[in-house]
């Protein structure tokens, strides 16, 4: 069993603390870079399949970042609205449909808004809708709502 006491912390010294901090920073930045790479390559692949056009990788990266920033605020609004609405819905199917409409609708609106604002990225409307539905499905399944809960 490893035990860490205040004495062990003082024995680490300034150089050891700097090394630990540096290594932790590298690990966190590496994980963040890996996540961003996966998202970027996912968008690039999706846009290649559905023939969306973008001028450069930088414009596509800007599109993704701006869409994520805007979607944070809209998703908070959609979640709050869904939580209020779900209090009055008893059917699981109706709850799913309401969540689909709210989440996919907000995601589509963000994609549409950023697409119209950025002239360097052109995405067909059907591609925006397909991407919004795909992102909703991924989020729904990763939230654990896609499987039945047993008690």
From TrEMBL:
**Record keywords:** Membrane, Transmembrane, Transmembrane helix
Source domain of life = Bacteria
Which InterPro entries does the protein's record reference?
YrvL (IPR025912)
Coiled coil region boundaries: none
Q: Does the record carry Membrane as a key word? A: yes
UniProt keyword Transmembrane, yes or no: yes
Q: Which Pfam families match?
A: YrvL
Annotated membrane-spanning segments are 21-49, 61-84, 96-114, 120-142
Please give the name of this protein: Regulatory protein YrvL
């Amino acid at each position: 069993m490893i035990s860490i006491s205040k004495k062990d912390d003082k024995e680490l010294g300034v150089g050891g603390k700097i090394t630990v901090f540096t290594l932790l920073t590298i690990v966190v930045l590496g994980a963040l870079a890996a996540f961003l790479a996966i998202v970027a390559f996912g968008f690039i692949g999706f846009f290649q399949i559905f023939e969306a056009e973008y001028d450069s990788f930088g414009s596509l990266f800007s599109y993704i970042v701006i869409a994520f920033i805007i979607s944070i605020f809209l998703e908070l609004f959609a979640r709050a609205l869904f939580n209020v609405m779900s209090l009055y819905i008893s059917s699981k199917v109706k709850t799913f449909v309401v969540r689909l409409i709210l989440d996919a609708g907000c995601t589509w609106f963000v994609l549409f808004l950023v697409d119209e604002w950025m002239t360097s990225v052109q995405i067909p409307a059907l591609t925006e809708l397909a991407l919004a539905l795909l992102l909703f499905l991924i989020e729904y399944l990763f939230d654990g709502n896609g499987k039945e809960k047993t008690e």
